[in-house]
Amino acid sequence: MVIPPKFIFVTGGVMSGLGKGIVTSSTAKLLQLCGLKVSCIKIDPYLNYDAGTMNPLTHGEVFVTEDGGECDMDVGNYERFLDVNLTIDHNITTGRIYSNVIKSEREGKYLGQCVQIIPHITDEIKNQLREIPVKENLDILVVECGGTVGDIESLPFLEALRQMKLEDEYSDTFFIHVTLAPVLDTVGDQKTKPTQHSVQELRRIGIQPDLLAVRCKTQLTKDTIRKISLFANISPESVMSCHDVSSIYSVPEILYEQGIAKVILKKLNLSFVLDDISNWKKISKTYVSYKDHIKIAIIGKYVNLKDSYVSVYQALLHAGAKLGTEIEIDWVDSEKFEVKSGDVNDYGSFGNNLNSLYSYDGILVPGGFGGRGSEGIINASNYARANNIPYLGICFGFQLAIIAFARYVCKLSDANTTEINEKTTNPVIVYMPEQKHIKNLGGTMRLGLHEIDLSSDSNAFEIYKSSSIERRHRHRYEFNQNFKELLEKHGMRFTGSSDNKKRIEILEIPNHIFYFGIQYHGEFHSRPGNPEPSFEHFIRASIKNKISKKDI
Ligand code: GLN
């Protein structure tokens, strides 16, 4: 039987940051476990065309899809939960919708008409949403609408969703609203009023939710569920408690236990049943009980918002879970390692701040841009090398590790990237030639999936057990191969390359416990139950480092 594609819409109420993305991913996961072909899409009501030009400190990580889309970080959650690779079409923004409509208007497609939000913008939204299930042969598309109900920006999107409910069969759409039941310390009981108001706001624009996912500290009490059910006009079975759990990968389980799949399948008139999620539980339980514990420092410049590096964080957890090791992460602002004076030895400046890094079992430097804090990262990557601390450098972390090596081992004291100092006499990292004539900053980096060849007899080959891999990229600068021979002579090896050796992708230092730099973003590839190999080997080395420190 061919099922017409169904839509589940996830909206948010009360405030942002309630974990709508996790509710969306978890719901989709459960439906996928039923045997349905499911995917997710994120609507971002901001005017930017995509997330590429947004500051990670205010908006969180820019997630890169295989086809080079620069997306909202929730797309990363969908990929990780569903174990699928999505495309740029899975992130719709107001900017994209308006630019399509304006393009059509210029082409004369609406000749004679006055182009308006309703119906032209809402039609474009509906078209884009309806295209995906057809193109990808899906049974269900779960659509997460960013923002909070009541925001001016998200109104056209909610209006489009309302219209879809009206136009499609009763059993083709399902609305989930994510809200909050706060507890005031002084009173102690779960408050339902914010949820009541938020549902009223949604109803005011014509949407009656079918299910509520209510965030709360501890499980919703029977009395809270009864109250919410009564005031929101939703049966108690459709009020889900989304209480705090220690791992996001436990959320599908708590929703499953409350019967979310049953409620959704019934309304969507699908004769599927979900009576076994043991395969998922096998994975999720590795995130709640650990045999061991290690401490990793993530050194970067966007450390004040953990979401700036969410895929890196998740990739570390995936590796730790597989190896039974809990990963404690300290987010360290690199500016604190910019020692202005003090002990300068052969390995550079190891001021007191840098020595604080010795207590970590491993050091990771993620991607980044621009000069601020970069000298601190260079010092830290040098410290990791000189003190035999496991080091994983990703993209900017790869580039800055090369600078540290050139400065402190090859004695090119002004070695730099032209991103930071255009006039350096030793430009070990340079602008990629293809980038030279680019004027626009949005969507113009070297993006998406590229094939990487690995040298045999290298650590890279050991790690990946293959002579070639494919990984995602997001950069404008690269290693300047004029310095390759010199760095190799001093002991650095370049064991991964792409584009017919035009581009260096991997560095390593033999005789070091683990010193590995990657120009690509391995973190976008990592999945719960299947960590990206460079992360897994970094964690293995960090465990080894902890054990050897204990032995001393
Ligand atoms: N700023 C560097 C470049 O553009 C690194 C980018 C990154 O870390 N994603 O090449």
- Please give the share of residues in helix: 25-40%
Q: Could you tell me the CATH topology label of the largest domain.
A: Rossmann fold
- The global form is globular
Name every ligand kind in the structure: glutamine
Work out the radius of gyration.
25 Å
Sheet with the most strands? 9 strands, mixed
Q: Can you name the CATH architecture of the largest domain?
A: 3-Layer(aba) Sandwich
For the record, what is the CATH homologous superfamily label of the largest domain? P-loop containing nucleotide triphosphate hydrolases
Query: β content, as a range?
Result: 15-25%
What count of helical segments does DSSP give? Answer: 18
CATH class of the largest domain: Alpha Beta
Extended strand count? 23
Read across the widest sheet, the strand sequence of neighbours is 11-10-14-15-23-22-21-18-19
Could you list the spans in which at least 5 consecutive residues all have pLDDT below 50?
none
Give the CA-CA distance, first to last residue. 66 Å
Mean pLDDT: 93
